[in-house]
Write a structure and sequence with these properties.
Elements lengths: L1 E5 L5 H10 L3 E5 L5 E3 L2 E3 L1 H10 L17 H8 L10 H15 L4 H11 L5 E4 L6 E6 L2 E4 H7 L6 E7 L8 H9 L2 E4 L4 H9 L2 H9 L4 E4 L2 E2 L2 E2 L4 H7 L6 H7 L6 E5 L6 H5 L4 E5 L6 H15 L3
Parallel strand pairs: 1-2, 1-9, 2-5, 9-10, 10-13, 13-14
Antiparallel strand pairs: 3-4, 6-7, 6-8, 11-12
Helix pairs in contact: 1-2, 1-13, 4-5, 7-9
The protein binds ligand FO1.
Ligand FO1 binds next to helix 2 and helix 6.
């Protein structure tokens, strides 16, 4: 059995690759960028993984449902609502049913399980916690929810800090803990280390369990050189005073991880990362095709057997 720690757009490709080469996959998903909008509870990272695994994901955008329409959003505009967060019609149904179930007393884990059944998704998708965690970005415009910072203000404001509100008190999902305990290998996907993986590592139970299994934890870098392959990972790392490269990433994960996969173009960092007591492997980490997703997944699993 393998467990993958996943955020959203930066993680879905390797999750898809792993699910196609391995039958027993559990995916622990971030909840820090969940967002309440129009009374609906939007869980981008859970949904991106579910849509990605059920062939519904809009691959061009990396989020939302492919070929979705936006009639609901246009109508909200008529009502004078802000519409910078582009919720499609089919996507809206996901948020609506989830919110209804939450209001009827079900927890996020069971709702997610139910959704996976409806969408015929094989791997177990496990929200890292059923409690609320909110990633907030401190900027010159003030303290913003991650979605406001990234989508509303297009990530333009200078970042001076990142907080994970609620993480301190959040209880780790017992299924996530069990999954880590029972897995032969735990993979930290190439998601944003500060906003996709970071919130999960702030939960005490998760961090403790990963540290215990540190010798079985493999991280895949989301960076090549000083820049992220997609999204703002490098920008957040610099804002947090962390070197925005695979070495900085290795330092961030050094309590919970012992093997790191970096891009072959970053081979010059190997010795420096090894000095942190890591095993370092390099290969092509970009995944532009389905074939590339499976190739990287196979590379991870092949090497996992020998660590
Ligand atoms: N990202 C955008 O850049 N613009 C959007 O309008 C947007 C809407 C949206 C709606 C539902 C959803 O599940 C995700 C959505 N995202 C959007 C992606 C999201 O902001 C982030 O990429 C993730 O939170 C990071 O994992």
């Amino acid at each position: 059995m393998i467990t993958v720690l996943a955020g959203g757009t930066g993680s879905v490709k390797i999750v898809r690759g792993l699910a196609s080469v391995e039958s027993d996959v559990n995916v622990i998903t971030n909840v820090g960028d969940n967002y309440w909008l129009y009374g609906l509870y939007v869980c981008p990272d859970i949904d991106t993984i579910i849509y990605g695994l059920s062939d519904r994901l809009d691959l061009d955008k990396g989020w939302g449902v492919k070929k979705d329409t936006f009639n609901f959003l246009h109508q909200m505009e008529v009502f004078g609502e802000e519409t910078w967060f582009r919720i499609g019609d089919r996507d809206a149904a996901t948020h609506l049913i989830r919110t209804n179930k939450l209001k009827n007393g079900e927890n996020l884990s069971n709702i997610t399980k139910w959704m996976c059944e409806r969408f015929a998704v094989g791997p177990n998708i496990i929200p890292v916690s059923d409690n609320s965690i909110e990633t907030r970005i401190t900027t010159s415009k003030g303290d913003l929810h991650l979605q406001e910072y990234w989508v509303k203000y297009r990530g333009r404001e200078e970042v001076t800090g990142i907080q994970y509100v609620g993480a301190e008190k959040a209880r780790a999902n017992p299924e996530a803990i069990q999954s880590i305990q029972n897995s032969d290998v735990i993979i930290i996907s190439p998601g944003n280390p500060l906003t996709s993986i970071g919130p999960m590592l702030q939960i005490k139970g998760i961090k403790k369990e990963l540290s215990r299994k540190k010798d079985r934890v493999i991280a895949i870098s989301p960076l090549i050189g000083d820049e992220s392959i997609t999204g703002p990972a490098a920008k957040y790392m610099r804002a947090a005073g962390i070197e925005s490269n695979a070495y900085g990433l290795a330092k961030m994960y050094s309590d919970v991880c012992s093997t790191i996969i970096i891009d072959s173009k970053d081979r010059n960092l190997t010795k420096k990362i090894q000095s942190l007591d890591y095993k370092v492997l390099d290969t092509k980490i970009t995944m532009k095709t389905k074939n590339a997703e499976e190739k990287l997944a196979s590379f991870v699993l092949k090497n996992a057997r020998s660590i």
